[in-house]
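Whether sequence alone determines local backbone shape is best considered at the level of individual chains. Part of our work consisted of pairing the sequence of a single chain with a tokenised description of its backbone. This step matters because it turns folding into a mapping between discrete strings. For completeness, the protein is quoted in full, as a sequence line and a line of structure tokens:

_____
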Amino acid sequence: MTGADEDRGSSGGGFTHSELSGSGGDVVQARDVQGGVHFHAASERRGVSDPIPRQLPADIRGFVNRLAELARLDRTLAGDPGEPLVCGVSVITGTAGVGKTSLALRWAHRVRERFPDGQLYVDLRGYDAGDPVTPGQALDGFLRALGTTPAGVPADEPGKAALFRSLLAERRMLVVLDNAATTAQVLPLLPGTSGCLAVVTSRSDLPGLAVRAGAKRLTLNVLSENESVTLLRTATSEERIADDAEDLAELARLCGRLPLALRIAADRAASRPYVPLSDLIADLRDESNLWDALGAGPEDETDVRTVFAWSYRALPKDAATLFRMLSLHPGPEFSTAAVAALGDLSSRQTRYLLDVLAGAHLIEQHAPDRYRFHDLLRAYALDQAHTAEPPEARTAALRRILLWYLLGADAAQTVVSPMEPHVAFDPDESPEQVWTATAPAVFDNAEQAVRWYTLERANLVGAVRAAADSAMDHLAWRLHVVLRSIYMRENSFDDWLITGHVALAAARRARDRSGEAEVLESLGIAYTQSGSLAEGAENHRAALAIRREIGDRFGEAMSLNGLGLLAFREHDLTTALELLEHSRVALHDLGESMWETLTTVNIAEAFLRLDRQREAEALLRPSLAIFRERQQSASIGNALWLLSMTLRELDRPEEAIHLAQEAVDLARSHGNHMWEGCWTMELGAVQRALGQHGEALESYQRAAALHRRIGDRGREAQSWAGAGEVYRELGRPEEAASFHRLAIATQRELDDRWLLATDLEQLGYDLRRAGDPDSGRWHLEEAQSILAEFNDPKAIRMRQRIAAVLEDEAS
């Protein structure tokens, strides 16, 4: 909760909507003032410190054949690694289980050196039983993998797609989009540059990709008989030597010559080296006849599901039970700890059973301690669960895993946002009541918690949905509310809003008014933080109404605080102050001293922006002392930043500079670029007030580079504007005008009317001093027109100042 951050406890120092077009590769030079301090705007090239993602899952072991298909994929590459690709999008299509993902990954690993800037991978889950991955969710993951900080990830899908294309410009990168269902799911994820290649796998032909992106299609058919026999012989060669070629061909036929089925059959044969292959074939033929009699499954899935059944029935009893129960897991992949919670097993037993299932190719281990199903196998396991497990057993297993995620998210909240109130747990939800051998995750610090969240985020979205779909509404809304602290920190807007709307419906079904208000407040914060202010206000007001109705005084105070921070964003300072004052009174009456202090700092900021600096100072000094006593680093820095601004505006820069420098040092000690960028801007402003122009320019250039790195375009523009004012004071109005034009272009794009008006005013003065009074007047008149939208003292004073300049010019 700082002036450089956004949280329900802080106004965020004047909100800016964070986007970025381009990379974080700023190059900034500083020399003495006589020679000038020059900012070189960031190019669109890759910066030397940008991460190189290596997201490909492990290569496929025992991959054989598909030589012709690999050769066709090779032809998408130019002969010279430095030349543009022959084709920017390759689509691998084919029926379920035919080996599309295996081929894509084998080829991707073969050619990854041709893409030195990295490889991105996402399973779009287009054919899973649950909801597919949205383009926004996929782009969010890609942007973070490319080094974009949470603050720099745009809230909307078009913004994410634009940033993704910008970050990949002039790079050579491979993007694997696995299991796509539709063209619409894929299009926003395409790089759009000649040096990058997207490989898409899908059961659909995706004809729109050929039209829209010039994609080349490779249709994957089942293996030939010879290829199938080769795969079986290769996979069993260490355990079985003398199998007859005709028997292998018959086994391949019963598997439909589908690679997925062939690998499962090969494992079954290898695990029984002394059983004649003819006996195994007879078993499989009996299973096939049973499926034919039942008419089970679509024709193109019957062979592979027959093999599933054949292999499943050979499992040890406890492995078969776990296989069935794993189908109830709410997300796309699972860890050993999650599986232990689902089955109420010990870690040792869980690892053993997972090894059995992975060895039988019924699940896949694709990363350290991360397992997943093929979507056909998940569907088969779910069928078996519904057949073999009574409803109460399925419900108990699902409840165990949902509680494991809820308790893990609650532990994450404890270290990420320790002041946030926790949701209430029922007596039968304590770990000792739920599990005999499992415990939820615990974290020593926020970094550990965020790493856990990053791994589990898709499962957490799935958990909220699964709880709601299973009539566990009380669990569904609490899961969302517990995740709110991490969502706020990580700007995970897609997940935040998706789970929020599911949770809101769940709370309403449960007729839990308190839960409904909590979810509405969470949605209010999500919409406000993402820049959708009308939706943010609507949800905050709905939460406030419920809390007043049910007599929740603390919740009412939080809703008032949220509405006050929203009013700050709209530069409605009088309303913000009124709402924050009401919030503080309620918190004082409740004895919530720390929340009262945080709200007091927000009130101080309102006073500062309303030209009531002495009142701001009177609130900030005791608040800073409280934060120091409680060692709240973020709040200390925020108070230092605001107090520095207050003293500077009171014409006491000699006092202010020590506070600003302390704030910057604090940010650097924590390695927090967001804090440092914001507070360094204030240091530059104080240095300018002291006439330390060289130092001020260096501070503004540092702030601009930091904001570019984290993707905060609004504050990057404010840093440019600060540099422009320094140049004007140095008597160099042309350079000042260049910086103010850059700032104005950004503020127009971000639609920040207040900052646009202030930068237009400054550009007007630059142009007048540069000998272009006509252009200066046009900009001053536009600034005056925009300022008519605001009625606070600073806006009135700015309008009067501009009017005086224009009148003087007219006379």
Observations:
- Residues 1-7, 11-36, 40-48, 293-300 have pLDDT under 50 and may be disordered.
- The first strand starts at residue 27 and ends at 30.
- The CA atoms of residues 8 and 562 lie 6 Å apart.
